[in-house]
Design goal:
Keywords: ATP-binding, Ligase, Nucleotide-binding, Purine biosynthesis
Cofactor: Mg(2+); Mn(2+)
CATH topology of the largest domain: D-amino Acid Aminotransferase, Chain A, domain 1
Strand content: 25-35%
Helix content: 25-40%
Largest sheet: 6 strands, antiparallel
Number of domains: 4
Radius of gyration: 20 Å
CATH architecture of the largest domain: 2-Layer Sandwich
EC number: 6.3.4.13
Distance between the termini: 44 Å
Mean pLDDT: 95
CATH class of the largest domain: Alpha Beta
Number of helices: 13
Catalytic activity: 5-phospho-beta-D-ribosylamine + glycine + ATP = N(1)-(5-phospho-beta-D-ribosyl)glycinamide + ADP + phosphate + H(+)
Structural class: alpha+beta
Family: Belongs to the GARS family.
CATH superfamily of the largest domain: ATP-grasp fold, B domain
Shape: globular
């Protein structure tokens, strides 16, 4: 099979790499991809993910069997609908189903209607009433831009001033543009966070191993929220019974609710969850693979990813099997200044990896003497080992010897698992 993957980041690199590992896919092209992917024999083509007509034309002219849509923006723009209209199979939700990520208010209302456990919330579309609610409710409290904000639209405010500053950021400074036309204000939930992703086809779904992301920029969960600075799997401090409860009280009723309400979901459903004293609750849903979770979950896949997705697209039952014995851990190298004022141009050193480690490239471009940093998150180094500590040691042994001038990384990815 020939497959086109849409996207350009480390997530899409991990998806393409897993497709090529499987055996049923002979050729993978990523649009637009990045030059780091070519080091793995992955083809790239300079097509904009928002140019649906050009992508449809490219797929037809080059005889791709199907398309895997990686990022959220083209999904929410309706690229799967446009492929379907052209008779092209694409793995991902259509525009109506992608609202589960495109609007936090949509997701919250869905959960409220179907008794899916999540934080209590209110939605506002202007500053004064939202500020009044914060003053009445008190802190800690969580402020979320309703629409897409590249993982940076959430503020966990530990005091009222921080909450009001976040609201002014959204409504006065319009930091997130149209994504901030509404805000969702949620109760603060306490507990360990974890990510539960599933392959979904209507009301059928196949859960993946859970992982834990690290959102804050700096060690000790300090600094601003980012798209994610590293992840690991499994998450030993989250028991299997909590995962089983999450599957039965969150994932199953969500996919059934989407189908019941006329927006059936096909693709990857990402449930960002928190294990509270009252049980697992939803923090957010995404309509695609998480990043950086994908880079530590897909290396655990022992079956053929392409064959599994092909089965789903053909209405057949897929097979997904996982390595439950070993651990995976990945650390992001980010450009200096990320996520606020990104400084581009840092030289990317050659990174020594072996059969049990890998580099997934994200924000890189070709420079005069090799790859250079071209956006916030530059790459992720992942290692697999018998346990989290060994995987952690291996990743940092690789990264600590590199010249990372112009970049930074967290030194404590996986520490929560080791300190639990």
């Amino acid at each position: 099979m020939k497959v086109l993957v849409i996207g350009s980041g480390a997530r899409e690199h991990a998806i393409a790499h897993a497709l090529m590992r499987g055996g049923s896919v002979s050729e993978v092209t990523v649009a637009p991809g990045n030059p780091g992917m070519e080091l793995d024999g992955i083809r790239i083509t300079q097509l904009n993910p928002s140019n649906h007509a050009a992508l449809v034309e490219f797929v037809k002219n080059n005889d791709y069997d199907w398309v895997f849509v990686g990022p959220e923006v083209p999904l929410i723009e309706g690229i799967v609908d446009d492929f379907a209209a052209a008779g092209i199979k694409a793995f991902g939700p259509n525009k109506a189903a992608a609202q589960i990520e495109g609007s936090k208010d949509f997701a919250k209302q869905l959960m409220e209607r179907h008794d899916i456990p999540t934080a209590k919330y209110r939605t506002f579309d202007e500053l004064d009433r939202s500020v009044a609610y914060v003053r009445e409710h008190g802190a800690p409290i969580v402020i979320k831009a309703d629409g897409l904000a590249a993982g940076k639209g959430v503020t966990v405010a530990m005091d009222e001033d921080a909450a009001i500053a976040a609201l002014e950021d959204i409504f006065v400074d319009h930091r997130f543009g149209n994504a901030g036309a509404k805000v969702v204000i949620e109760d603060f939930l306490e507990g360990q966070e974890f990510s539960l992703m599933s392959f979904v086809n209507g009301t059928d779904f196949w859960p993946m191993p859970i992982s834990q992301d690290h959102k804050r920029a700096y060690d000790g969960d300090k600094g601003p929220n980012t798209g994610g600075m590293g992840a690991y799997s499994p998450v030993p401090q989250i028991s299997q019974s909590v995962v089983d409860t999450a599957i039965e009280t969150i994932v199953r009723p969500t996919v059934e609710a989407m189908a019941d309400e006329g927006t059936p979901f096909t693709g990857i459903l990402y449930a960002g969850l928190i294990a509270t004293a009252e049980g697992p609750k939803v923090i957010e849903f995404n309509a695609r693979f998480g990043d950086p979770e994908t880079e530590v979950v897909l290396p655990k896949l022992t079956s053929d990813l392409g064959a599994g997705i092909n089965a789903i697209l053909n209405g057949e039952t897929p097979e997904f099997t996982w390595d439950d014995e070993n651990a995976t851990l990945g650390v992001v190298l980010a450009a200096e200044g990320y996520p606020v004022n990104v400084v581009k141009g840092a030289a990317i050193p050659e990174i020594p990896v072996d059969a049990n480690s890998h580099v997934y490239y994200a924000g890189v471009s070709n420079g005069a003497h090799g790859l250079v940093a071209s956006s916030g998150r530059v790459l992720l180094v992942e290692a697999s080992a018998s346990d989290i500590k060994t995987a952690q040691d291996k990743v940092y042994e690789i990264i600590d010897q590199l010249d990372t001038t112009g970049m930074f990384y967290r030194h404590d990815i996986g520490a929560k698992a080791l300190n639990a």
